[in-house]
Amino acid sequence: MQQQQALQVEQANVQIANQYSQQRRQVTMEREQLMRKYEIDRLGYKRDLQTAADQKKFNGEAANAIYKQEQIKIQEAKKKAAFAQQTALAKSIGARGSILAAGRTGQSIGLLVNDAERQSGFEQAQADATLDSQIQMATIGMDQAFLQNQNADQKADNNVGFDPQLPYMPSMPGIPNFIDPFRNAQPA
Predict the structure, then answer these.
(1) How sure is the predictor about 132, in pLDDT bands with cuts at 50, 70 and 90?
(2) What is the chain's mean pLDDT, rounded?
(3) Could you tell me which residue, 145 or 116, shows the higher pLDDT?
(4) How far is CA 99 from CA 30, 64, 72, 104, in A?
(5) Could you say which DSSP state residue 181 is in?
(6) What pTM was computed for the model?
């Protein structure tokens, strides 16, 4: 009878040990799967971050190119305005000189000289107004480039996935309680 009971206890302990080993393997496999998924997610997140950083760099370069173009337009407009003012001044000087060289006298000569200066003033005012308008247009172009850059940067940031956190790991099963073969043993 004791042998049969000892055999039953041994079989029960083997079954407990097998269940424990099986549970341990299952938990270990689940942990490995969670860690593999975490590593894949982490790699994807890093890739997304790098892609966003690259895109933002390209966005900044594109915005800088537009800024340069608009600044060149402003410089060209300033040069054009300066030449227009110089031309107007030269015309004014030439017109006054022609009027004075004609040998006229009287009040009408003063009016003619004033009219030449007035015409020069109008041409300079027109050149200044054109310059101001071109500066405003270039400034608007730079503002639009800035806003487009900000929008493109935001889109790049929005394409970055979530930052994966370390997963919750299931705990390993506790050490099994084996059946003590001597617990219920009867004295012989």
Answers:
(1) very high
(2) 88
(3) 145
(4) 102, 52, 40, 7
(5) T
(6) 0.66
